[in-house]
Design a protein that fits this description.
Helices cover about 15% and strands about 30% of the residues. By secondary structure, the chain is of the alpha+beta class. The strands form two sheets. Strands 3-4-9-5-6-7-8 form a seven-stranded antiparallel beta sheet, with no helix packed on it. Strands 1-2 form a two-stranded antiparallel sheet.
């Protein structure tokens, strides 16, 4: 009787494991194992997205049918290698819906254009402001009338780090600010 090798009918039938399809081994550096495991586990966790919209005005009839399951990464991040998160501090952007403690999703592959909300480094200090370009003048505008615009000069060290594409805040943050 031979030893080793594949035995006919042995093992779990393909596609019946946790993932419902055949799997493939993958070698990962030990230092990245926990990150890879976490990524794989969370990638398969999708939240229900309901078919109906929720009225912000008068109540409407609802439909409890689920349109699809969605992964928040797929919904919020188009280019993972170009996206980062940063926490907002202060109230200078409150009229743009950015509150103290909000999490900002920032894409650094989007070209910074007039009117976009950006994350910038100005003389080594980070800020979130609306970019305002008028002829050859560049200003960073707060979305709160109590803050003056910052007019950039050639002497200033200025760099755009990315464009804000989403704002994530909790209801508690909104209650504190109003």
């Amino acid at each position: 009787m031979g030893r080793g090798g594949k035995r006919e009918g042995a093992g779990r039938p393909k596609g019946t494991g946790r993932f419902g399809e055949p799997t493939k081994p993958l070698r990962v550096p030990v230092s990245d194992f926990d990150k890879a495991k976490n990524f794989i586990q969370n990638r398969f966790f999708k939240l229900p997205l309901y078919f109906c919209s929720i009225a912000a005005g008068a109540p409407t009839d609802t439909d409890d049918k689920i349109e699809r399951k969605t992964d928040l990464n797929e919904l919020l991040v188009k280019k993972p290698e170009k996206t980062f998160l940063v926490k907002a501090s202060g109230l200078s952007m409150i009229n743009a819906g950015i509150l103290d403690g909000d999490l900002l999703v920032v894409d650094n592959s989007i070209e910074p254009k007039h009117g976009k909300i950006i994350i910038a480094a100005v003389n080594g200090q980070l800020t979130v402001k609306r970019l305002h370009i008028n002829k050859n003048k560049v200003r960073l505008i707060a979305e709160n009338d109590t803050f003056a615009p910052l007019e950039l000069s050639k002497e200033m060290n200025f760099k755009v780090l990315g464009t804000v594409i989403h704002v994530i805040h909790t209801l508690q943050a909104m209650i504190k600010c109003h």
